[in-house]
Amino acid sequence: MQMAPPTEPAESSSPRANFLAFLASLFLSKIADQVLLFLVPLVVFQTTQDVGWSGLAFAVEAFPRFLSFPICGALCDRISPVRLMRWSQVLRAVICASGAICASVFGGVGWLIAVSALCGVLTTQGAMAREVILPQVFKKHRFEKVLAYSQTADQLGAVLGPVVAAVLLMQVHWQAAVGITAIIFVLADGAMTYWRRTTRVRLRPRETAQGNMVAAMKTALAHVIGLPGLRRLVIQAAGVNLVVGVTLASSAALVTGVHAQTAGYYGALQTAGAIVTVLVLMGIAHISIPVQRLGLAGFSLMVVGGLLTALSPGAWGYAAGYLLVIGFDKMFNIYLRSSRQRVIPTADYGKTTGVMTLLNNLTQPLAGLAIGAFATEWTAGRVILVLTLGMALLGCLSVLAGGRPAMAERAE
User: Average pLDDT, stretch 245-258?
Assistant: First the structure.
């Protein structure tokens, strides 16, 4: 099989500025994406005054993001991920600008839903391209440190995005807010352009002969099923997402209902969760900890957090559990991403990561459905307790799925 020649590596004149440009692109792109996520359910509800339509709009917006992971991952094994990431940002800017113009001329909230759904797929493509780029480009840095900084930029963008959206809606109509979102995507691409021009990225060779998408999915599933290390990671991530999903689905009701706290307290708790997450990520960035210990610590602390949210009679005990679940989810995520990049064969990294990401997240919506189906009969606390014990059980079962994964042979 013929291989395309690799790009020659070259050092940036300022490696620090180069890395910051990469992070700035991620940060700005995340803000713009979160603005769209914030606008859709709110604007639809304000327009229709119907919660049902708001929920349906959110589903239409979210499902394309969720379902496109395998295809977007497979594309990263066929096309340069740097090119895909830039296309993702440029096309999102074009779609936002076009949607804003069409909504202003023709009216109707459907334009906003369409814009967000299309941008959601492109957001997934950008995320998968970034996942493929990170372990190949920043090789001079400890990979866990690179992941910690990238997730910090992502987390800060996720926190600031709704704030930016709220401020925009206080000043302009939603059509103009979508237009401004296009400008933010352009700025994100500008930072990516600077990064690309100051570094010759050394990416792995790409295969000149490619099968179809069905063959790519079969290859990815064969890796997930056949490699013990990946089976273990999928089972562990499924358990983690049970607790993350049930925590996110029930937190507002438990804080303001069962624990009788104000909306302001709930907002402060969410802010505290973001702060704890950033502190955990900065600790990982500056302290070298073996990957396996990161995974064990993150998983164990999240189990403790789930038990606290389920069993604590008071608001402060619940808050402690909430902060453990939300804060240390990112620690486990670094373990997950770092471990799989050591196991997955380089040529199949994109397609296999895409399938894994889809499988990892299947239990999160299931946890939300469990709260809706059983909370009335069992109380939310009992549902959380059962799902937390389920997470612990899956953690034990993952040990039986295979021992410590061997590192795959990776092409340089």
Answer: 78
Q: Residue 200: helix, strand or coil by DSSP?
A: strand
SS3 state of residue 207 = strand
Amino acid identity for residue 401 in this structure: A
CB atoms within 10 A of CB 267: 11
pLDDT of residue 2: 39
pLDDT reading at 78 higher than 70: yes
* pLDDT at position 154 over 80: yes
Q: Say if residue 175 is in the same domain as residue 312.
A: no
Query: Within this chain, do residues 93 and 163 fall inside the same structural domain, yes or no?
Result: yes
CB 188 within 8 A of CB 161: no
Within a domain: residue 5?
A: no
Please check whether residue 256 lies inside any domain of the structure.
yes
CA 90 to chain centre: 20
When pLDDT is averaged across residues 346-370 and rounded to a whole number, the result is 82
Task: Point out the least confidently predicted range of 40-54, 289-303, 304-318.
Answer: 40-54
Q: Is 202 helix (H, G, I), strand (E, B) or coil?
A: coil
* DSSP β-bridge partners for residue 200: 10
Q: Which residues contact 276 (CB under 8 A, 6 or more apart)?
A: 323, 326, 327
**Between 338 and 50, whose confidence is greater?**
338
Asked if pLDDT for residue 14 goes beyond 70, the answer is: no
> DSSP string spanning 225-250?
HH-HHHHHHHHHHHHHHHHHHHHHHH
238 and 375 belong to one structural domain: yes
Q: DSSP letter string over 333-377?
A: HHHHHHHHHHHS-GGGHHHHHHHHHHHHHTHHHHHHHHHHHHHHH
Q: How far apart are CA 274 and CA 100, in angstroms?
A: 31
The residue with greater pLDDT, 136 or 173, is: 173
What whole-number distance in Å separates Cα of residue 250 and Cα of residue 315? 14
| Cβ atoms of residues 358 and 342 within 8 Å | no
Range of the structural domain that residue 236 is part of: 213-400
Does some domain include residue 411?
Answer: no
